[in-house]
């Protein structure tokens, strides 16, 4: 049974296939029959560039449990990165204010 579960998101970054890196512009996440993993169904994540030939693709097939663990890890990393970016922005703002006050 096909699930027809597909989510598409814009992407900015790079992916590697073999020895070649390529720009990303799209991420496709789906839940359907596994094609390669020894699973009945899998969360599949495709990192692609729709402007390049079909070979410009990096993909993974994960069990639901692995996908949940990945989601948790991504959430934690994103939260930590956002906190670090906020600290960096505050430090830059403080430096600018100090320069203005010194002038």
Molecular structure report:
- The protein is of the alpha+beta class.
- Helices cover 38% and strands 40% of the residues.
- Strands 1-2-3-4 form a four-stranded antiparallel sheet.
- The chain is elongated and about 65 Å long.
Order of helices and strands: EEEEH
Overall structural class, as computed from helix and strand content, comes to alpha+beta
Strand content: 35-45%
Sheet with most strands: 4 strands, antiparallel
The largest beta-sheet arranges its strands as: 1-2-3-4
Number of continuous helical runs: 1
**Count of individual beta strands:** 4
Shape: elongated
Q: What is the helix fraction of residues, given as a range?
A: 25-40%
Distance between the termini: 70 Å
Mean pLDDT score: 92
| Radius of gyration (Å) | 20 Å
Low-confidence stretches: none
Features:
38% helix, 4-stranded antiparallel β-sheet, 103 residues, alpha+beta, single chain, 1 helix, 4 strands
């Amino acid at each position: 049974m096909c699930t027809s579960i597909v989510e598409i998101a814009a992407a900015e970054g790079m992916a590697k296939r073999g020895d070649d890196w390529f720009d990303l512009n799209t991420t496709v996440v789906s839940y359907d029959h596994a094609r390669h993993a020894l699973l009945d169904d899998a969360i599949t994540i495709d990192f692609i560039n729709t402007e390049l030939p079909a070979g410009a693709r990096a993909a993974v097939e994960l069990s639901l449990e692995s996908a949940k663990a990945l989601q948790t890890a991504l959430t934690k990393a994103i939260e930590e990165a956002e906190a670090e970016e906020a600290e960096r922005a505050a430090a830059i703002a403080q430096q600018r204010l100090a320069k203005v006050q010194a002038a």
